[in-house]
Amino acid sequence: MPALHSPWQIYVPRIDRAHRHWLTDVGSLTQKLKQHSQGFTVLRQAQQRAPTPLAESHAINMPNRRRTWQREVLLLCDGIPVVYAHTITPLESVSRDWPFFKRLGNQALGVALFANPLIRRAHFEYTRLSERDELYQTTQAAVANHGLVLPKHIWARRCIFHHNRHKNSRMMVTEVMLPAIYNLRKQTL
User: What is the pTM of this model?
Assistant: First the structure.
């Protein structure tokens, strides 16, 4: 029977040391990608109300299949997809905690999150996705239009953001590292 998801762990995974910083850097991934490319863009795939994915319901402390606002984007560096990102938040908290969320369009979520000192990020969790994982399959569908075929395993990280002014606010951001991210080099001026 296919797995719904690979297990998420809080320890840093055993990944090539040269690639590890893409998973573990606690700064803004958006800013880091901008520093590693001449042209950074966000390509929104979807933004809608949808049932909470089964693999994410426990992590965000929501009952199975309860509806959430979800956003899926590809982050591109110089026209090449390097990250697939999936974000969910409870419907009732969008207007109160994350009013900017519905208006992002093709703008990076990270800019809004890191610009607000009242928003804090919890620890990262990591996983290695395989072809049997629902998130892997969703990622493959998102990059297929770019002619990409994923390797058998890819790394992902996720974390929950909280707004300090509101009890129980939460937004979970999952970032899947695509193979091209490991080829990026920091741009020099």
Answer: 0.91
